[in-house]
Design a protein that fits this description.
With about 220 residues, this protein is of the alpha/beta class. The protein is built from seven helices and ten strands.
């Protein structure tokens, strides 16, 4: 498949790009700083420098692509937000990407979110004790994820939202649990490598369209 990956220089994005190339996909990695892309140049990989927050600058990067993947995460760093960012980074990037896809006629979108802002499926300890505390600490980031999902859900795209818990740098196992619409019970962590594996697994699965899927090891 011809894939466009936003957030390609981040931890999850690096895994997505690497695994996609290994699987034989053609990848267009969109970055603000090519020096931060940890994937070596190789056949099948193209790199584009663009501001994800500007739909006009990324329209051609999503046109004609079989799927678009966003691994953009929340960031307070001005250089990662982009000069044209308006509001929280996840929400702003989702608005920009979905607008660019609509203008270009692209349809398939896989968006990485987080399970933290949501409690359906959580056990009592996590739901009533741990998450209220974490929510106070990460209030802005959690609000950003919720609003981002609302933006994606309001589109006519064939979207899939993936909700990981705390991310780790453990190696790929291919062994993880998923849950549609609710969090994975006792799902506290997942590796970025396994999250990237699921990103690629759902790409051409119509059964995952317009669904939020939680994942955990």
């Amino acid at each position: 498949m011809k894939l466009t990956v936003f957030g390609a220089s981040g931890g999850t994005g690096t895994q997505v790009v690497s695994q996609a190339l290994a699987a034989g996909h053609e990848v267009l990695a969109v970055v603000r700083d090519p020096a931060r892309l940890a994937v070596p140049a190789r056949a099948g990989l193209d790199v584009a420098v663009a501001d994800v927050m500007d739909p006009g600058s990324i329209r051609d990067l999503v046109a004609g692509r079989e799927a678009v993947i966003s691994a953009v995460g929340p960031s307070r760093r001005k250089e990662e937000r982009g000069a044209s960012a308006q509001g929280p980074v996840c929400t702003a990037s989702a608005r920009s990407i979905t607008a660019a896809m609509a203008a270009a006629g692209s349809q398939r979108l896989v968006m990485v979110s987080a399970s933290g802002p949501f409690t359906d499926g959580d056990g009592p300890l996590l739901r009533y004790l741990a998450k209220p505390i974490v929510n106070r600490v990460l209030k802005d980031a959690f609000t950003d994820f919720r609003t981002m999902e609302q933006v994606v859900r309001a589109t006519g795209l064939d979207w899939t939202i993936l909700r990981p818990p705390r991310l780790t740098d453990k190696p790929l196992t291919g062994r993880y649990r998923t849950s549609r619409g609710t969090n994975v019970r006792r799902g506290l962590t997942v590796s970025r490598a396994d999250l990237a594996h699921l990103v690629l697994e759902v790409l051409d699965d119509p059964g995952t369209y317009r669904a939020a899927i939680a994942i955990a090891n």
